[in-house]
Design brief:
With 323 residues, the chain is of the alpha/beta class. It has helices at 3-9, 30-40, 76-83, 103-116, 131-136, 144-160, 197-206, 220-235, 259-269, 287-304, 311-322; strands spanning 13-17, 45-48, 90-93, 96-97, 121-126, 164-167, 172-176, 189-193, 209-212, 244-250, 273-277. The chain contains eleven helices and eleven strands. Strand 2 (45-48), helix 3 and strand 3 form a beta-alpha-beta unit. Mean pLDDT is 90; it is low at 1-9 and 308-323.
Length: 323
Amino acid sequence: MSDAVRGTASRTRIGVVMPQAEITTGEVKATSDYARQAEESGFDHLLAFDHVLGVDSTSRPEWDGYYDHQVPFLEPFTLFAFLGSITTMEFVSDIMILPQRQTALVAKQAATLDQLVEGRLRLGVGIGWNEVEYEALGESFSTRGRRFEEQIGLLRELWTHPVVDHAGEFDRVDRAGIAPLPVQQPIPIWIGCGDKDIALDRVGRLADGWIPHPGLGAGGRLEAAWAKVRMFAERAGRDPDSIGLEGHVPLRDTTIEGTEAKLSRWIDMGASHVAFNALGAGLAWPGQHLDVCSQVGARWSQHLGVDRPWTAPVQRRRRRDRQ
């Protein structure tokens, strides 16, 4: 690894996706074992996917969605609150479908969680694609883009001011506020999306970071989209270097050894964070997932060749557990 790349690597934080879509009945609490294993293996943040409802695909021959009602998704805020007392990792929603939720309620839930986990929350949000969820939650699918932009601004207001007076197209807060406010002022908001210009423009103008859609692949399409995010940021008068980038390395596309090359590619792109994802790799929950998490975490930490900033908290927790 060259000195230049090593310098970039020392700033890259590595994380892992909770493989909750493969959790089997009766083994849900193994999520705590997985979080402990991830931290002790060198990962410093944990990501969880979000969906409220899955449709019954058997009654919809035309359905071409990514999942259906049989795929398990644990609600991220609840999951993170459960795990917050047993790990010092950062928690990331990847991604929460913001416009299908009430803005003030999300602000309250996120602020409470941020207090409970002592400022270790990063809110990943997006507009989603599942119209069935929007209908069931009583929100409009057709206006989700405009509502999304208003929500981001309102969330930041609610997190940083004791009293908010907001009258927008979609939300009204009449001289009210949430308490307690979050530890972070405000909680970082990262936008997850594909490479449509309208979406990349939102990232550049509004987001603290970008979570690219995994479908962008490994070719030049991803690099071109990242260049556009930075361009839109400059156009909005923002420093493009202030926008983080969360890379994903899916095991299903490679081997355990091959994940290191994909990690390096993200580092070369300037990713501030890179997450390992074992979903879809045919691993059994929880045993094989725990083993692979340990192997990849050790390899990535060694590959980066730096003293990781989360070593001390892990050692403190181990000493506390022995007392």
